[in-house]
Write a structure and sequence with these properties.
178 residues; alpha+beta; Glutaredoxin; two-stranded antiparallel ribbon
């Protein structure tokens, strides 16, 4: 189980317009926000990523780089980038499901076409959001088994202001006996 204050798994992935993303080469002044999404077939993801695209400049102002990643191939990822009007947000594609599992993401099987008429991949990862420090330790994480009720990006930006002002530590790190 991935917990705060531990090293994040390796993550190297191609992006639509920004070359290769490699977490080991990512050095924002504060953190990297890694947002895993289900794929082009998910209308909830499209709305969520539109919000992340809109909020990416606010994250950047606070020293947080952003990327959204799915197991979709390049063509479907490009369609999602176009759908959300991605200008600021990096869109990564080709996430292997074995890497998704290392990040603690849930995996779902296809149920055919979604409500927007797009076929789900045979297997795909469910959503997750992670704030990772430049030393690659996990600061915060949220993993979901469903596409609904995801963390709010505007609230996350406000929380980052509090974190910086109060030098607030990562929480949820205890793995000993209870």
């Amino acid at each position: 189980m991935l917990v705060p204050r531990t090293l994040a798994p390796s993550l190297a992935i191609k992006t639509i317009q920004h070359g290769e993303f490699d977490l080991t080469s990512e050095y924002p002044s504060l953190m990297t926000l890694v947002c895993f999404y289900r794929g082009l077939h998910c209308p909830v993801c499209a709305n969520y990523l539109k919000e992340l695209e809109r909020m990416t400049p606010a994250f950047r102002e606070r020293g947080v780089s952003t990327i959204a990643i799915s197991s979709d191939g390049e063509d479907r990822a490009r369609q999602m980038a176009n759908k959300i009007g991605a200008e600021h947000l990096r869109i990564g594609y080709g996430l292997s499901l074995s890497v998704a599992r290392q990040w603690g993401l849930y995996i779902s099987a296809s149920r055919g076409k979604t409500s927007i008429g797009i076929e789900e991949p045979e297997l795909f990862s469910e959503p997750g959001a992670f704030l990772v420090r430049p030393d690659r330790t996990v600061y915060w994480l949220s993993v979901q088994s469903m596409p609904f009720a995801r963390p709010n990006f505007a609230e996350m930006v406000q929380a980052l202001d509090f974190v910086v002002k109060n030098d607030y530590p990562a929480r949820g790190e205890y793995t000993g006996g209870v």
